[in-house]
């Protein structure tokens, strides 16, 4: 009932705001696939119809107001949704507006944003791999952001989710293809030296070449209500990456490390990939290798084809193999459709 009331309130907001100004939009992406999933360490394969094969499904409202003098006010309220069941969120107890809940001022100085938004790791990770923001089939995204709950002990390398609540984000203007985002997440606990998250990313685009880097130092867990890690742990995570579009193919490469100041293991991840235009779509191939010291090594590779039916709708087929040393390997496949509105 609570979820239904929130959804109704959002739709009412869209209707009233749209009548007042044309810059408020209802938008989102619905993505659903059918297939079989068996990750490394799984006892068997699950046959599924699941949401979010290539993009985590979401919807919401975004808007902007021209304040004059080159200054704009922006807002975003967007939520994830599982379109196979209709359940809100990415998983149980995911906050309603866990994708975006923020307001910002934008001008010649850049953009200053307050509220829930992207973490520093997100854009570099999803832009610099051929499978984009696929939390189902992208090897790099899986290693960085998706824990395994099957006895392998895989907890993902990103310290604190792909979105941060209670944060201030400053985004610079673009200087000749170069831009940066600086993030600070408040712990909202007593004491000025309480736990917090801090990080930044840099993005560079120049013709066919692009490069990136990000760094995070995290003491707050996400995506729920911020709270200190139980061990008062401090985790760091960084990555560098590049891509080059030669026309006949676009190549991707990244390298990164994640480490805890109290826990011994350190994770080192390298990824390679390519996107190859074929017909009205692209052949996608890529892999990631993460070595945990001390611990296991994980190798994941995916091959697929993404075909564009229109500018907003595509269909895809993916085949993935996942292996963690000392555990049984797994092979997954999926056929899906994605629509943006």
Largest sheet: 16 strands, antiparallel, barrel
State the domain count: 1
CATH architecture: Beta Barrel
Give the strand tally: 18
CATH topology value: Porin
General shape: globular
What are the segments in which pLDDT stays under 50 over at least 5 consecutive residues? 17-22
Sum up the structure in keywords.
Porin, 16-stranded antiparallel barrel, mainly beta, 341 residues, 9% helix, globular
Concise summary:
The chain has 341 residues and is mainly beta.
Secondary structure elements and their pairing?
Blueprint: H1 2-20, E1 25-37, E2 46-51, E3 58-68, E4 71-82, E5 87-88, E6 100-107, E7 110-118, H2 122-127, H3 139-145, E8 163-171, E9 178-186, E10 196-206, E11 209-218, E12 235-245, E13 250-260, E14 266-278, E15 281-293, E16 297-308, E17 313-324, E18 330-340
Antiparallel strand pairs: 1-2, 1-3, 1-18, 3-4, 4-5, 4-6, 6-7, 7-8, 8-9, 9-10, 10-11, 11-12, 12-13, 13-14, 14-15, 15-16, 16-17, 17-18
What does this structure look like?
The chain has 341 residues and is mainly beta. It has one domain (2-340): Beta Barrel (Porin), CATH 2.40.160. The chain has three helices and 18 strands. A hairpin with a 5-residue loop joins β13 (250-260) and β14 (266-278). The longest helix is centred in the N-terminal third of the chain and has 19 residues, at 2-20. 37% of the residues are buried. The model is unreliable at 17-22 (pLDDT under 50).
